[in-house]
Amino acid sequence: MSNVTxxxxxxTLTDVAVIVATGKQVIVRxxxxxxTSVDDDVTIQEYSPxxxxxxxxxxxxxxxxxxxxSLDFGPNGRRLNGFSLSVIDHxxxxxxxxxx
Length: 100
Known about the structure:
With about 100 residues, the chain is an all-beta fold. It contains no helices and 7 strands.
């Protein structure tokens, strides 16, 4: 399966990629990572004002089970400058976008 970023409110990501370039705002409401193995992890990067990628959101599967891992940023979401999925070991990342 490849990345699906055509949805206005939901992206489904399985592959490392720059999804939104620097200078464009992305509001992330919630992320849900469904790993396929223990210890799988995900790293989302945003860009500094100088255009340098930096870690913004990190999720890691448990060492004991492969249940979903989620992070909810509340009704206003979290603003990122761009959006790069720099690490995804295995599994699927669901990114819910925008404010309520």
